[in-house]
UniProtKB/TrEMBL annotation:
Residue stretches making up the Homoserine dehydrogenase catalytic domain: 131-310
Residue span(s) of domain Aspartate/homoserine dehydrogenase NAD-binding: 8-123
Positions that bind L-homoserine: E184
Enzymatic reactions: L-homoserine + NADP(+) = L-aspartate 4-semialdehyde + NADPH + H(+)
Metabolic or biological pathway: Amino-acid biosynthesis; L-methionine biosynthesis via de novo pathway; L-homoserine from L-aspartate: step 3/3; Amino-acid biosynthesis; L-threonine biosynthesis; L-threonine from L-aspartate: step 3/5
GO molecular function: homoserine dehydrogenase activity; NADP binding
Binding-site residues, NADP(+): L7, G8, L9, G10, T11, V12, G13, T14
Alphabetically ordered keywords of this record: Amino-acid biosynthesis, Methionine biosynthesis, NADP, Oxidoreductase, Sodium, Threonine biosynthesis
Name this protein carries in UniProt: Homoserine dehydrogenase
Amino acid sequence: MIKIAILGLGTVGTGVVKVVEANTVPIQHKLGQPLSVKTALVRKLRADPYQHLMTENFREIEHDGEIRVVVETIGGVEAAYEYTRRCLMAGKHVVTANKQLVAEHGCELLELARKNHVNYLFEASVGGGIPVLHPLTQCMAANRVDEIYGILNGTTNFILTKMVKEGASFAEVLKLAQEKGYAEADPTADVEGIDAGRKICILADLAFGHQVDPAQVPMEGITGIDLKDVEIAGRHGYRIKLLGRCLRLEGGRRTAYVAPHLISEENPMSDVNDVFNAVVVRGNATGEVMFYGKGAGELPTASACVADVIECLQEERHRPEIGWSADTGGFASPLTLKNRWYFRVGTDTLSEALHSAKVLEQGTETAFITPSITGTDAERLAAYLPTLAKMRVLD
Ligand SMILES: NC(=O)C1=CN([C@@H]2O[C@H](COP(=O)(O)OP(=O)(O)OC[C@H]3O[C@@H](n4cnc5c(N)ncnc54)[C@H](OP(=O)(O)O)[C@@H]3O)[C@@H](O)[C@H]2O)C=CC1
Ligand SMILES: N[C@@H](CC=O)C(=O)O
């Protein structure tokens, strides 16, 4: 019998216990022996179906020689960071869904894992139940990855879908997302694009081999989206989605950002709805490869955690393809990127200078799409016009 422990018995932690219990047979088949959760660290003991697993004492797990893998599902940095370090130093593999910790300290924790001959794996930290980090680092290992973009936050995609398709209010759908266990403990991270930002950092770290610090990355969420723009976009064959995007630039530089985009209805990304996420990885040999599935929720996320547990136990070795340099140099502003831009401005006429723009609708306000221009030029234009809305078009 192989024993594991869980740190933090909330949505994902509980999901891990459920997946281990429900899938005993296939898991045993893969490991050659049964797997069970021995202990779960909680802040305070409580009445719960899994009360028999609970402890308030981290040292019980740290010093338990029987526990070979620890699943960290506390979230945030402080306690999660300290406990992860201590587990790795105690020679235990650590698996996590905690994108904040991986985005901010992943490089250092991977190095600590390497020194202690154990693994630090975090498939669940990006895209919930979608396998994307393993395919990126293993199945696409023969490529130079040039770009990754995707819908990386289940909560905001769920909110946008319900608001647009069912006319529901923002507050009401956010509450529903929280009840379903999709949202972060502080949902500001979801709605302001910070959670998607942490995920695009992890993808960029792995794809480009350099630390992309979340503090470097401009992040814009969904709170500034006006339903008027959703309607205009819809009438002209576009949908509005929150995307995270990172690109390899010339001269070894890289960039990343999170922002709402207009996406053509012909692009399958435009049809990714509810809690689903989709990630496109563009490799120089594969071209675009798309990964799709549930980006949040108890069981999908737990599935990715348990798969990492199985991998740690099967391999019992460090995975050298997962890691990146701590050097954050070479990050360029995404304002250098060229895109078409959607604008809605509070005027009924456009100056001659904008003759090449494609006017979508014109009344007391004008909605138009520019030719491909840099983000800097889009900002200049926005300052010059009475701008009510502006966002990139995904080309
Ligand atoms: N929910 C989802 O769909 C997904 C979540 N994730 C990530 O997984 C992680 C966990 O998320 P989720 O399960 O939703 O969050 P929850 O808030 O549901 O669970 C976190 C749990 O950790 C407990 N906890 C907090 N601090 C400590 C501590 N010091 N010691 C012991 N337990 C502690 C909390 O207890 P208390 O209630 O007492 O605060 C809570 O039960 C986060 O990093 C999140 O970003 C990743 C992918 C999807
Ligand atoms: N809050 C996150 C949870 C999964 O990462 C989301 O909604 O995507």
